[in-house]
Design goal:
It comes from Mesorhizobium denitrificans. By secondary structure, the chain is an all-alpha fold. It has helices at about 1-20, 30-35, 40-45, 60-80, 85-90, 105-110, 110-125.
Length: about 130
């Protein structure tokens, strides 16, 4: 069990490291958009910021919203064991308990805690 947790931590850490804006302590909008498989312009919609805000990666609002996305994807990765599966789930899987909206839609609307609670429920076997 400890070995599996270490492997998941390594996967998540590698994913988070891959998002870093070069030579800064920030998440790169370009790298996150690539990881999610969306255009940078669409990242603005997913983060709920104006598209021009993406030109300033140090924007605290942008960084906060991207951290929320990464937090949910990291939690989903712990559950699935695979970053690609977690990203696919995040973007595409409708959640019945939330009017069949995806995690990405919920996070964009500021419902991060609801999505994290749903993931915790899955981890604890509360659903299917």
């Amino acid at each position: 069990m400890a070995h599996a947790q270490l492997a998941h931590s390594t996967v998540i850490s590698g994913f988070v490291d891959s998002l870093q804006e070069p030579r800064t302590p920030y998440i790169s909008p370009k790298r996150l958009s690539q990881a999610l498989g969306v255009k940078v312009a669409n990242l603005a919609q997913l983060t709920g910021v104006h598209r021009n805000t993406l030109r300033n990666p140090s924007s605290e609002r942008l960084q906060g919203r991207m951290r929320e996305m990464v937090k949910v994807i990291s939690a989903a990765t712990e559950l699935t064991g695979d970053v690609d599966k977690a990203i696919y789930w995040y973007r595409n899987e409708p959640i019945a308990d939330y009017s069949h909206r995806t995690a990405a839609e919920l996070v964009a609307d500021g419902q991060v805690e609801a999505v994290l609670a749903f993931i915790r429920d899955l981890e604890n076997g509360a659903r299917g």
